[in-house]
Design a protein that fits this description.
300 residues, alpha+beta, eight-stranded antiparallel beta sheet, two-stranded antiparallel sheet, 12 strands, endonuclease activity, hydrolase activity
Length: 300
Amino acid sequence: MHTIKSLFLAMGVLALVACGSSNDDNSTSTSGPSASNVNANIPTASMKYIGDLEFPKVKGGNSIIISHLDGDSLNYSIEWDTEKKSNRWSCYKMYWSNRLSRTTRYYGSPQYPSDPDMNSSYQYSVDNDPFGDIKYDHGHLCPSADRLNSANSNYQTFYLTNMQPQAHSFNAGIWNDMESLIRSWITVNSSHSDTLYVCKGGTIDKSTDIFTTTSKGLLVPRYYFSAVLMKNSSGYKAIGFWFDQTVSASKQGTLASHVVNIDTLEEKTGIDFFCNLPDDTEEHVESLAVENILRAWKLN
């Protein structure tokens, strides 16, 4: 395994920004039309992939970027806060060829390995798994079910650094429903030019957004989010989801009730999503009204 450390319909009432481009597939070149972009990430030798569309603006400071590769293909990336020992987000691409099912969900020992590409002092060890004695699930951010294209890609999704603590009713309930919905947007039958860019995480930066801290120091986010960007032959469109995991399953409502635009998600999280889009495209796709987002993604 090679790993490098390093995320309108202009018709009717919808705004879909046109782009004529080829499928990113498993390439990691930065993307999109050539245009002004003042907030783009600048790739470096140690953060080679941060110019890809799934990446938010990297935070810097105590945070590091780790990108996991399966062979020459980028599997997923994370931003890890080394001081808090917590994942801020995981981001990844979905396209027809990595939606092929060639393996099954990993089961092994350890079930949740330490990240081999992170300094051990920055993360929890398998022998001291902070999830081991608490009531929360190991909540995948890049889901196992999104990476059945190879055994190695699937295995990597079980790294402890790709996990956040989730109440079981939330993890197996509306969060799982959202993951299934996102998978339905890209299938093996999708056009080879279609790509989905996904960034998911839990809130760890504001004390008011942290539900609790466990005896081992593990932060338990109160809120979870997902930012999704679709690129297809029509252009770009984006959608955000925002959840309070402390709300009981019976009161979570429908997925549509959790939809927000990306501007709102950025206000809630302090994260600049899809910063590598040209500025005019980013502004359009991120500010669309919720009712138009629901229509564009066929959720109304």
